[in-house]
């Protein structure tokens, strides 16, 4: 007997619900494994470049700063590609595959003897330099890993939030907040594991296994993500904000000769139902991009602009204004990013000091950065659970301390951290010379490496105040349509900071070496003057703090501005057809 399927019965079958709690472990595991793998490679990379590729300290620092800068810059590019073309799901997959290929290439540099120059004694002048092919192989691995991070990191958090983006469920807000907490907890824990476990493996089992483990972890990262592919909510890409910024700039330039209307209502182009129907008075020249000159010619029947490069919406104009307004304060975060990005010199300092906790165990030189992370975690917990409730009662503000105050405190602490670093390095250098290690940078001093912990702890506090304060500041000041941009601005600043590290080291190296003089950032840190380098960073940090005070004063009040914009009235108003906005003036546009 033959049975046939009734199409109506098929349509009545309940569809499988997608998204929700079951997708969270896979998304969080994807990000966690990727961070353990990538952050575990960075602390010891200075030693690998100096030992395997015979680079001096200045060159190695420059290479790593370029790599770190690319890793922080490319997430902005990844966010643009994700939002405009591929969507978050595909972008994450591309990122996973690219990162895996990069880590495999890096692992092969340790596995294939021909991938490195012949080994030689450290600081020997007879060391053979790396060939262009060997460097190209190494740099290709760095480039692929940076591209991969650019695909994963900007999309992972937003993709997880997409799984709870369902209308009509009042529980979503609390669940989403819980997801954010778990996400950041796993991300921070992953960095800590990378700085400890992966570094320990590299120190005790060598580069072949030390680089092989991240390959396995990155493979697991992509595998876990793909396992739940059929359960994900996959949102389609939307129009890019960057395109909107370009359209506003072009439209404002084309309309530069027109006069702004005296009557605001009905004169500006906005989407029906939008909360933002009138532009603000800040940067009024941009308001010309959304002025309707002739409604019949400029606006289609569906309410959209006939030419989006000549007429933009009020919302587009305000989005660009929001970015331009925060740029000065954003630029003050670049210097603290320089201080946070110091990886090479603290590693060399720790390598030359007694790192033993007990007679049988010593902290790996590349793991001292964990004190920064641990301080950050502890402070966030204490501040969130104990300090904020008390400060909220005293100040009446939900944040406890204002966002700009928090950023300023972070900058001040960063100045202190660099000053402490300079003082400790001065002590370490004098001890090295006194103990006869002036010509032996590999010698271990009779000085505890625990002297380095205070500078790492202060850096962790500075990051807790400034980095988190920056992110909340951008998020509070931007319209809701720009939340993704708000959360990526800090990473962009870190990219500029990483790039500036290489520039500063290069300038210091070129300015202080030559004519028989030892560079301040010499490969022999006992003959160099790393303490002077830290004093330079301290001076720059103090100047940056003063610059922040000026920018903060010029910015004006910030708390609650976003709320005012988002809650402005006008939800039920559409395109008005009253009086002509430009009083029938005939104006030529450029």
TrEMBL record:
Membrane: present as a keyword of the record?
yes
Which keywords does the record carry? Membrane, Transmembrane, Transmembrane helix
- Which compartments is it annotated to reside in? Membrane
Q: One GO molecular-function annotation for this sequence?
A: transmembrane transporter activity
Major subcellular site: membrane
Map out region (Disordered) in residue numbers. Answer: 562-590
Membrane-spanning intervals of the chain = 62-81, 93-115, 135-161, 182-201, 213-233, 363-383, 403-424, 485-508, 532-555
Q: Which domain of life is it from?
A: Eukaryota
Instruction: Tell me a GO cellular component.
Output: membrane
Fetch the Pfam families from UniProt: PTR2
Bilayer topology annotation? Multi-pass membrane protein
Which family, according to the similarity comment? Belongs to the major facilitator superfamily. Proton-dependent oligopeptide transporter (POT/PTR) (TC 2.A.17) family.
Q: Any idea what this protein is called?
A: NRT1/ PTR FAMILY 1.1
Name the species this protein comes from: Thalictrum thalictroides (Rue-anemone)
